[in-house]
UniProtKB/TrEMBL annotation:
Name used for this protein in its record: Class I SAM-dependent methyltransferase
UniProt entry tagged with the keyword Methyltransferase: yes
Annotated keywords: Methyltransferase, Transferase
Phylogenetic placement of the source organism: Bacteria, Pseudomonadati, Bacteroidota, Flavobacteriia, Flavobacteriales
GO molecular function, one term: methyltransferase activity
Recorded superkingdom: Bacteria
GO biological process, one term: methylation
Domain PG-1098 ferredoxin-like: 278-320
Amino acid sequence: MNSIILQPSIQEFIANNSTVSISKLALQKNPFPEVEWKLILNQIEAKSKAKDKLPTWFNAKNILFPSKISVEQTSSEATAMYKSNLVSGESLIDLTGGFGVDDYFFAKKIKAVTHCEINPELSAIVQHNFEQLQVTNIECHSGDSFETLQKSNLKWDWIYIDPSRRNDAKGKVFMLKDCLPNVPENLDFYFEKSDAILIKTAPLLDISAGLSELKNVKNIHIIALENEVKELLWELHRDYSGAISIKTANITKTAIDTFDFEWEQSQNLPNYGIPKKYLYEPNSAVMKSGGFDEVAIQFQLTKLHKHSHLYTSEELVDFPGRIFKIKAVFPYNKTEIKQQLSGKQCNITTRNFPETVENIRKKWKIKDGGHDYSFFTTDANTNKIVVFCSKIK
């Protein structure tokens, strides 16, 4: 950890330039010849990445940042806050501490948090930052977290793990056994140290694949931020063997859209039919969950087609996703498209449709943007149709 970066004049320079382009700054002469220019530029670049993602760190004084990749890979404050509501009790150990964002929020709910980080430099940075942020109930351990667990006689209320993919796992199908630490291999050992384990994985992990590698899974949380799935959270409880709950959450600036269902429990099928008055498009967390039939059944909606994943109703319902008022429905053919859309401006989405948005725009000379929305899709009678709408939510 380079404490020279903490000189007031350098900190002021970093703060004043956190919105300036790095390539532009790199061409300037270093105003602090006693410090490597690259070191200062790295701080500025990492800090700028934290502006929207980590406002607490961005706005605090004397914060040290690791590489911009560490900042890019860390949880956002919004998702870390969500995670903190899943845990409770006296103690939690984070086996893969990283930049410490999750632990900062865990520490608001848990009496004593242990942050383990194998990289000594990153561990020192995190400890320094917790001091600046006046967090006093997090203990930082530098070294292998497996050894920390082995040497300790403690039993924690929670173990938290964010495994990272091994470098040699690139190109392979995402499996937990290809990550560090190897959670499936170590699971029995972890359960000796805690009755509750929370695992964070990338959205790339297939839910069925994760379930084939893990046991005692009680809840799976699918977290999206502004309609982009950011992480899957696997909640494991020792000796648990009941139904698995899928909990989806799309966090926006104003609300959290949620939708829950039980994994592979529903035997019912939704109703299929033609578009009615309103059209519904699930958010990305619901799409990742695979709960395509469950969302129709729970909200009493009609599904347009088994594979279209678009829903409709006569009465307006509150829905975890985008909601549209249908203005027109017409078949996908030359006459109709020319008459209704050619040369006009419209937002286009395709669902279960053989052509790409790009091809449709080019072919029919449809401009992007505006207030109208067109869904190119397949209906219950397997006809190719266009649903022309205005957005409600």
